[in-house]
Write a structure and sequence with these properties.
By secondary structure, this protein is of the alpha/beta class. It has 19 helices and 26 strands. Helices cover about 30% and strands about 20% of the residues. The structure holds uridine-diphosphate-2(N-acetylglucosaminyl) butyric acid.
Amino acid sequence: MEYWTARKTGDWRPGELPPGWPEATGDSDLSPADSLELAGLEPGRELRSTGGLTSVRLHSAAASHLAQHSDGSRSEMNDGPQTRYRVRGGNPLQGTVFVQGAKNAALKMIAASLLAEKGRTVLRNVPVIEDVRRAVELAQALGAVVKFHEAERTLVVDASELTSSVLPAEIARRFRASVLFVPALLHRLGEATIEGVGGCNLGSRNLDFHYRGFARLGAIVDEQEDKIHIKAGKLQGAHLYLDTPSHTGTENLIMAASLAPGTTIIDNCALEPEVLDVIAFLSKMGADISGGGTGFVTVRGVSQLTATEHTVMPDRIDAGVLAMAAAITGGELNLVGASLADFGVVRWKLEQMGVDFTPKGAVLQVRRERTLRPINVITSPYPGFATDLQSPIMALSCLADGTSYIRETIFDGRYGLVGELNKMGAKVEVDSGNVVIVHGPSTLKGTKVVAHDLRTGIALILAGLSAEGETVVAPGYLIDRGHAAVAERLTTLGADITAEESG
Ligand code: EPU
């Protein structure tokens, strides 16, 4: 029975998925088959780069492993302390809040700091989140001396001695950004082994652009049943390209090229502000990089990089979530550290919905007094609408007066929120064209919901802030991977939210 028929006949009750609706699909990336096709790879085929000296080898066993675990990355990343968030909605948020440092810049900088053979790197404004703690553990496992002064949000890294080229399974398996440590290991130790990932990395987790880039720079990439081994006598500048402007792929290949003799050109690079911040950091270390923000980056290899000091840019996704917290509760917030310019299309979409932004010097005031209007959102690489804010705006659009349309184009199946919002009484469906249709306005009602991933989780916190009664969001660990001190920061703004052990 179709949703609208079910509604009319009374067979559907708010809080349930209407009969015949697809189950929420979670946050998997491209299907393994799609990914291999995208990469131009077939299972069992060895890819040779220029001169036949380097290769990427995919084993058919690994490929079949992919088929079994197309959403493996999500379940692996659930590992962590058993926490949950309890939110009692209804309070308009008011006050001043600090935007955290950018997760998706800081993680890359921690890895890049291992490129420096001498001295200590100091990173400021590092977000106190679980992903940063995992990156610190990984750097320590490789032999770097790393101290995260959490109260000061400052990280000090001394990578003068690297003692291991192995990215151990217990961390690499649950932390996708592990691949960012490969360039430092190749330059410092001549090889890197990523344990516990096997097929998932080249397929469903989609890191093929990284491995193909390393191969074009002269590395030999060998994927085995449960690990990937990469070896490089000496990397050499080359002409690289990305099939699509991968955010981390751009940063990783720039890092790999920065110490490779000769000139590397990378076509079709990502334009995200975090990429520019990572380039700024590498440039301070002595790297010779030009073309950041143009889509075509040139890296001239230097002989060494030196430790430096850098302040991580503010997190535009955290800022966007806080802006939406003001919007969904009909409140008014002053965001310290939010850059409206970094919002890209997100700013215009929120304004269309009825959210007011007023820069007050270095503080951004966000306010929503009017009735929320429905919205049409298509995610795309920066400066398009950020995929990481797709779930939060879906939650917000449930309150809008009319029908909203949301289309995800970066990650396949990043619609895990749909089913959870319906549990809360929203009317959200995914149509046959994979477009999410949100039939607003709904009065959300608190219930137990599942954070399928980081951004689904924070979107459910937003939904809970506006819902009647109590919303329980678990696992909290996934939210803590990317957003710092969620309960503490929202509580100071008047929210009724607590974090607790799940028991
Ligand atoms: N892709 C491939 N092969 C690759 C790399 C990417 O097929 O080798 C595909 C991906 O599967 C995806 C698309 O290309 O479909 C875009 O992926 P991209 O590489 O740009 O994403 P990412 O670098 O892995 C970063 C952020 C994500 C954010 C995306 C898009 C980090 C650590 N992660 O991922 O952040 O969604 O860029 O902006 O920087 C998050 O913070 O919640 C998060 C998922």
